[in-house]
Amino acid sequence: MAASESLDVLVVGAGPTGLALAAQLHAYGARFRIVDRHLDRARESRALAIQARTLEALAPYGVTDELVARGNRAVQLRMHFPGRTVRLPAFDIGVADTPYPFLLFLSQAETERVLGGHLAEAGTTIERGTELVELTAEGDHAAGRLRHRDGAEEIVKARYVVGCDGAHSTVRNQAGIGFEGHAYPQTFLLADLEVDELEKGAAHAYLTKAGMLFFFPLGSPASWRMLAIRPPGTPDAERPVDVRQLQAVVDRYVSDRLHLRDPVWMTDFRLHNRGAKSYRAGRAFLAGDAAHIHSPAGGQGMNTGIQDALNLGWKLALVCQDAAPDALLDTYESERAPVGRNVLHFTDRAFTIATSPNPLLRLARTRVAPRLAPLVMRLPALRAAAFRTISELAIHYRRSPATAEGPHPRRRGPRAGDRLPDTPGNLHAMTAAPGYHLLLGGPREVWDTARIVAATRGRNHLLHIHTLGMSGPWRGTTHCLVRPDGYLAYRAGGADLTGLLSYLDRWLPLPEAEEPH
Fold first, then answer.
1. pLDDT digits (tens, 9 = 90+) for 332-341
2. Which of 32, 389, 448, 511 meets the CB 3.0–4.6 Å disulfide criterion with 9?
3. Would you say 461 and 499 are in contact if contact means Cβ atoms under 8 Å apart?
4. Beta-carbon-side half-sphere exposure of residue 463 (alpha carbons within 13 Å)
């Protein structure tokens, strides 16, 4: 059995989560390999929506513009109730502090194509047809036994292994991490196909006493994605899904005649709501569906996985380069596990309300919602708050051990642990280079940048300094440190950098040879 050279990170799974992790590891110069047991990337649409925060988080790796160009950002919502259709401009609310104030509809197949193409251009090979069959801990590294498509096996040694390998994660099972939760009783039908007589450019939701039916605009690999609850007692439930079954469900749920044809892909499945008991066991980490699976309510799944990856990748890289302490890796679970739990709770509640046979909830879906939805959507503040939640812009790490508030912070604006808003414009582009970014606000004469560079010496390759002047929220003298993933690690008012330097000494320490005497 062949043995390969030691790596920093072995990434198992080349879906969107694994591909995003690989993109970040490459940007930070980590030594890694990415393997996937499947011979090809996803060709089905699967996940449909890319949220604003995900587009922001991927922008530093040069893929967001292409994702936006391939996707549909102008989707409207049509809610069909018995005897009434409500037209809602659900995804056009916009907010001023993000370059992507919309929900982007794009097939997961296209998302994987773009991320995979970026890695290929960077010289990274996705090793498909390569399966992790065993994972063991051996002192200062993990040993993974890989089996290739031709049956040959090798042992890969890596300081860390990240399981991005889905709900049936081998990494999770080999690491002995529990996966707790439940399955929903309903069976769902899923298909990518063509639908005649359906208004284009909109997402359609049919909420009836019998169940739910959704059509989402795709464009590729077919015009529409269909998602429906299979009605109880369906006589052909044990047979493979075909167009006839799908048409029968549509005819039951929809009063207007919709004709289904030319399916590209169709299946039935059960939904689960499960979360990993921990996101780390020794040198093994979990991200994406390996850590949490849930209903597709709110389009959170793929987005949460990608953001798991982009929270973890830079931490692994800096620790492997001895630029950060091992304790930085502990912050991955303390930051992302609460996000995962919130997503599981939110999607479970939304799913239960939408599918429960309870007479009161059924009445609310079919009678109350048609009258209430148009009124709610006329309130800009409420729509904006809902957008910030669904788009994941509201996620923060204020309670993280790696987050600190310094003296005299501003009363308004983002706090330590919040994402950096893109105001004034182009802050995200300014802070896109790998590493931390120190933002200095207030009169430029207050800041002696030469002194600051001297005080932060030895960290030049990972610490970038920007003076912002008096624009927008930077009118008062203030300074903040932006993490590599776009969240504020530290902030303080005034020009005294003592607290900042203490923070850097803790989380981005100087090399021993350059410690001050």
1. 999 999 999 9
2. 32
3. no
4. 27
Q: What is the domain range of residue 206?
A: 181-272
Q: How many CB atoms lie within 10 A of CB 383?
A: 20
**Number of domains present in the structure of the chain:** 3
Contacts of 382 (CB under 8 A, 6+ apart): 376
The two beta strands, 202-207 and 76-81, are parallel
Per-residue pLDDT tens for 20-77? 999 999 999 999 999 999 998 776 667 889 999 999 999 999 999 999 999 988 778 8
Of 272, 296, 329, the last residue of a domain is 272
The answer to whether residue 357 scores a pLDDT higher than 80 is: no
With contact defined as beta carbons under 8 Å apart, do 422 and 486 qualify?
A: no
The token pair at 306 is: 């990608």
- How do residues 160-182 score in pLDDT, each as one tens digit? 999 999 999 999 999 999 999 99
Q: What pLDDT shows up at residue 50? A: 95
Q: In whole angstroms, how large is the CA radius of gyration of the chain?
A: 24
Using the predicted structure, report yes or no on whether residue 399 has a pLDDT greater than 90: yes
- Decide: 434 and 427 in contact? Cβ < 8 Å: no
Residues 6+ apart with CB under 8 A from 393: 52, 53, 95, 97, 98, 387, 419
3-state secondary structure of 299: coil
Q: Are residues 161 and 310 in the same domain?
A: yes
User: Which residues are CB-neighbours of 476 under 8 A, at least 6 positions away?
Assistant: 410, 441, 442, 493
Q: Which two tokens stand for residue 103?
A: 């929900």
Kindly state whether residues 124 and 229 are assigned to the same domain. Answer: no
Q: Which of 272, 291, 316 is the last residue of a domain?
A: 272
- Note the pLDDT tens digit of each residue in 247-279: 999 998 888 789 999 999 899 888 899 999 999
Is the same domain home to 142 and 268? no
Kindly state whether residues 203 and 251 are assigned to the same domain. yes
- Specify whether 185 is located in the same domain as 173: no
Rounded distance between C-alpha atoms, residue 172 and residue 278, angstroms = 10
Instruction: DSSP letter for 487, please.
Output: B
Q: Which residue has the tokens 């922001």?
A: 56
Q: Tell me: do 168 and 136 sit in the same domain.
A: yes
Reported pTM: 0.93
Q: Which residues pair with 176 in a beta bridge?
A: none
Q: What does the DSSP assignment read for 27-77?
A: HTT--EEEEESSSS---S----EE-HHHHHHHGGGT-HHHHHHHSB---EE
Q: Which residues pair with 156 in a beta bridge?
A: 144
Give the C-alpha separation, 291 to 300, whole Å.
13
Q: In angstroms, what CA-CA distances link 245 with 42, 191, 250?
A: 25, 11, 9
Q: What is the DSSP secondary-structure string of 391-424?
A: TTTT---TT-TT-EE-SS--SSSPPTTSBPP--S
Residue 98 is assigned to a structural domain of this protein: no
